Amino acid sequence: MVRGRTVKRVGAAASAGRSRGVAAGRSATVARRTKETAVELSLNVDGSGRYDIRSGVPFLDHMLEIFARHGFFDLTLRASGDVEVDDHHTVEDVGLALGQAFRQALGAKEGIRRFGEATVPLDEALVQVVVDLSGRPFLAYDVEIRQERIGAFAVELIHDFLLAFVNENGMNLHVRMLAGRNPHHIVEAVFKGLARALDAATQRDPRLRGVLSTKGTLSG
Ligand SMILES: [Mn+2]
After folding, report:
1. Is residue 168 part of a domain?
2. C-alpha 49, offset from chain centre
3. Which of 69, 70, 150, 172 is 20 to 30 A from 196 in CA distance terms?
4. Is residue 145 part of a domain?
5. What is the total count of domains within the chain?
6. What's 38-106 look like in SS3?
7. Residue 173's domain is classified under what CATH number?
8. Measured in angstroms, how far is the CA atom of residue 180 from the centroid of ligand 1?
9. CB 135 within 8 A of CB 203
10. Interval between CA 184 and ligand 1 midpoint (Å)
11. How far is the CA of 87 from the centre of ligand 1 (A)?
């Protein structure tokens, strides 16, 4: 039995332009197991928005379903964690697994547009999300929510989720709340924006040969 923070990679498109996952398209399967959580996740970047998500944290499930649907990503997730302690470990480890899946599925990122942005409303809430799949992890999170909880869910964990996601995916992510009052609306707009921006950034540009970088690499 493997102990500690170890990672098993299965069927991932590890190298540029190759996909060996079960689904057609750029895909990856990730399994993370620690003493705190166990996460299994399958992602197809070139999916149709199908999902089957059970993280043990219902609000996170709701947000990831929105993410899959609006990004046209196929996403299967099973997570079990010490949620009796706190949702924190599970939320963070799901973020890490999702980031790792994107990184593996995109490989060397040849031929992709790299940048994407979306500004998404939900009633009074308006959130702008900008991504650069640069290989350099950076998160600017400018979202101010006064309420500490949405139901049982600690709102602060959204920031931790995105930080984990960005660090593993090696991407630049700016999230800026332009307007908002209701925390559920605001967070939902964050995930819709993230989905749309990532969908745009991962699209292939037929004019591109190699990676969109004068440096010649997007691996950081
Ligand atoms: Mn909702």
Report:
1. yes
2. 14
3. 150
4. yes
5. 1
6. EEEEEEECCCCCCEEEECCCHHHHHHHHHHHHHHCCEEEEEEEECCCCCCHHHHHHHHHHHHHHHHHHH
7. 3.30.230.40
8. 14
9. no
10. 6
11. 19
- How far away, in angstroms, is 160 Cα from ligand 1 center? 20
| Domain membership flag for residue 118 | yes
Per-residue pLDDT of the chain (220 residues; tens, 9 = 90+): 334 444 444 444 433 334 444 457 899 999 999 999 999 999 999 999 999 999 999 999 999 999 999 999 999 999 999 988 889 999 999 999 999 999 999 999 999 999 999 999 999 999 999 999 999 999 999 999 999 999 999 999 999 999 999 999 999 999 999 999 999 999 999 999 999 999 999 999 999 999 999 888 998 7
Are 171 and 132 a contacting pair, CB within 8 Å?
yes
Is residue 115, in this structure, part of any structural domain at all? yes
pTM: 0.89
Residue 210 CA to ligand 1 centre (angstroms): 39
Domain that holds residue 48: 6-202
Measured in Å, residue 187 CA sits from the centre of ligand 1 at 9
For residue 207, how far is its CA from the centre of ligand 1 (angstroms)? 38
Report helix, strand or coil for 113: coil
Cα-to-centroid distance, 188 and ligand 1 (Å): 6
